[in-house]
Design goal:
By secondary structure, this protein is an all-alpha fold. It has 2 domains: 2-81, Homeodomain-like (Arc Repressor Mutant, subunit A, Orthogonal Bundle), CATH 1.10.10; 91-203, Tetracycline Repressor, domain 2. The chain is 78% helix and 0% strand. Helix 1 (2-50) packs across helix 4 (74-81).
Length: 206
């Protein structure tokens, strides 16, 4: 009787546990992705300080304990959510005189086709930690690209900083503050204004 009880009662549980072991990596990846997506939206909408683990968990339709299990803290969750690839093109393969326009076109497309970067920008306006993360993203990814185009690599950081100031300033006015004259501009018009400025920052002698 005991053997029958064990088979009828425990065996289904053991089978389910085995199934869980096999599927847990996929479930784990899906859960992490849901948490990150919810975190980016919540951080972008409310800023770093107001966004809470409980609210992010609710948006992801999971228990708050799961957020802490995967990321440990709000700070670590933000660091993971703030990862962003600018996917900068290889500008060295273009004619030197067209690099500024190509870079302006690429960055504008990244702003318009990915809500993550806009969410980070909105959060960066009110939170120093988020602003620092945004700075780090541009510094780590933009400076090497600019350095590859400069005759004087020592000025790459300055040139990249000036380009970032234009790119971030435009994005702030167009997507966050939504200044009517800037919002009303067509994409080609924005590139036409921004491209020559980028080009000057890339090539001006100092």
């Amino acid at each position: 009787m005991k053997i029958v009880w064990y088979v009828n009662t425990c065996w289904p549980i053991l089978v389910d546990m085995k199934r869980e072991e096999k599927t847990s990596p996929r479930r784990s990846d899906a859960t992490k992705a849901a948490i990150l997506a919810a975190a980016r939206e919540r951080f972008g909408a409310e800023g770093y300080d107001r966004a809470t683990i409980r609210a992010i968990a609710a948006d992801a339709a999971i228990d708050p304990a799961m957020v802490m299990r995967y990321y440990g803290s709000k700070e670590k969750l933000f660091a993971a959510a703030a990862e962003f690839d600018l996917r900068l093109p290889d500008l060295t393969v273009l004619p030197r005189g067209g690099a500024g326009k190509a870079l302006a076109k690429h960055l504008l497309e990244r702003w318009e086709n990915d809500d993550t970067l806009k969410a980070l920008l909105r959060a960066a306006v009110t939170n120093e930690a988020v602003a620092a993360r945004m700075q780090a993203i541009f510094a780590a990814q933009l400076v090497p690209t600019i350095a590859s185009l400069c005759d004087d690599s020592a000025t790459a950081g300055t040139r990249a900083g000036l380009i970032a100031s234009q790119a971030l300033g435009l994005a702030l006015c167009r997507y966050v503050l939504r200044l009517p004259p800037v919002v009303a501009m067509e994409r080609a018009e924005v590139i036409g204004w921004l491209g020559p400025t980028f080009q000057r920052y890339l090539t001006v002698k100092r």
